Amino acid sequence: MIIKKLHEMGLRSDHAYTAAVVSIGLSFLSWTASIKGEAAGTDRADRWGIFVGEWAPTFFGLGLALAQYEKD
């Protein structure tokens, strides 16, 4: 039901896959920015990188669901 609604709104599997790859890059970028820009140290930078990095599997899963819907 949600996948159908997202598809009707114009979201395609390619968009979700692209968002997943971009979130991997953002994870690295946020880790780098945090480690260089904050005095909090590596622990905080690691948490930022992991937080953003967790988005990628969600987008990949969404992409798979949309690809399956597009196939049907």
TrEMBL record:
Superkingdom field: Bacteria
Keyword Transmembrane helix attributed:
yes
Keyword set, alphabetical order: Membrane, Transmembrane, Transmembrane helix
Residue ranges spanning the membrane: these are 16-35, 47-67
Full protein name: DUF2637 domain-containing protein
State the organism of origin: Streptomyces pactum
Please spell out the taxonomic lineage of the organism that makes this protein: Bacteria, Bacillati, Actinomycetota, Actinomycetes, Kitasatosporales
